[in-house]
Design goal:
This protein is of the alpha+beta class. It contains eight helices and 13 strands. Strands 3, 4, 6, 7, 8, 10, 12 and 13 form an eight-stranded antiparallel beta sheet that branches. A three-stranded antiparallel beta sheet has the order 5-11-9, with no helix packed on it. A two-stranded antiparallel sheet has the order 1-2. Strand 12 and strand 13 form a beta hairpin.
Length: 299
């Protein structure tokens, strides 16, 4: 029995030494435990570091998203193109609204080097909208839209009701540059027609029944159509993106003759509309006065 006890004690001591050596040597009994402890200790720190990095990444991104952007107009630019290329919510009308003081009264007259602010004003309404009563803003916006629709409908109704056989060349447009505005940009020294500001692709209509005398490329006028009417006057529709009629074709009041665009010598999409005493350049008369004399409400 004593011998057995002596035999057991050395074994126990050997085992203890073995463990101690394993611990000292850094084998699986020591390193994994230290590694596990280190891993548990490092995990919260790593998580905090990752969270901090994510926050640092998200914060600039959020700031960038909400920040305004300045765009310098280049040759060949026009507002609708800029809105598409820069993904501006609200399109060219939003850019014009935010930069009207810089652009001026005619959104089609922008020039290379002009600095436009994109997104500055767009962000403000979004931020303030939740703070204000939700009913208040829609209530203000809807009547405005309803007013525009009512005005547009009233204009159309007036043109049809008077039975004059004449209509506006384009619906829902605002007037940009008026007739006879002086300027060195025009070869005649003044603007020979009236510009109706509309985005590319808007339907352009014949103001009255008549015969198409020319349809095609018109140099500085881009794609254009000229129509002779029963009273001997000629109407011209210029800068169109595409044409829907051809020379010699008979058209009716309100018939589509093409789609608006920005072809020829322009800085943005619009319809250049003229009334002439001959089919040629230089025989222009006031187009708005002409339409009004035929019972069409303009502006």
């Amino acid at each position: 029995m004593p011998a057995k006890g002596k035999h057991r004690r050395p074994k126990s001591l050997r085992l203890t030494r073995t463990i101690a050596v394993a611990g000292t040597g850094g084998a699986a009994l020591a390193l994994p435990l230290m590694g596990a402890t280190g891993a548990h200790a490092a995990t919260p720190a790593a998580a905090v570091a990752q969270h901090t990095q994510k926050s640092a990444t998200v914060a600039p991104a959020a700031a960038k998203a909400g920040a305004s952007k300045t765009y310098a107009v280049k040759a060949g630019d026009y507002l609708a193109k800029i809105a598409d290329d820069q993904h501006v919510s609200g399109g060219w009308k939003k850019i014009y609204s935010d930069n009207r003081s810089a652009i001026g009264s005619d959104p089609s007259l922008i020039h290379p080097g002009l600095k436009l602010s994109l997104g500055a004003k767009a962000a403000a309404p979004k931020a303030s909208a939740p703070a204000k009563p939700s009913a208040a803003k829609p209530a203000a916006a809807k009547p405005a839209a309803a007013k525009a629709d009512t005005a547009s409908t009233a204009t159309k109704t007036a043109a049809v009701a008077n039975g004059s056989g004449y209509t506006l060349p384009v619906d829902g447009a605002t007037i940009g540059t008026n007739y006879k505005v002086a300027g060195s940009m025009w070869s005649s020294g003044y603007h020979t027609g009236t510009d109706f500001v509309v985005p590319t692709g808007t339907t352009i209509k014949s103001i009255a029944a008549g015969t198409v005398v020319s349809a095609g490329w018109g140099g500085a006028y881009g794609n254009q159509v000229v129509i002779q009417h029963a009273d001997g006057r000629y109407s011209q529709y210029a800068h169109m993106s595409s044409l829907s009629v051809s020379a010699g074709q008979t058209v009716t009041e309100g018939q589509q003759v093409g789609l608006s665009g920005a072809t020829g010598n322009v800085t943005g999409p619009h319809l250049h509309f003229e009334i002439r005493t001959t089919p040629d350049y230089g025989s222009d008369i006031d187009p708005v006065a002409y339409l009004r004399s035929h019972g069409v409400a303009v502006g």
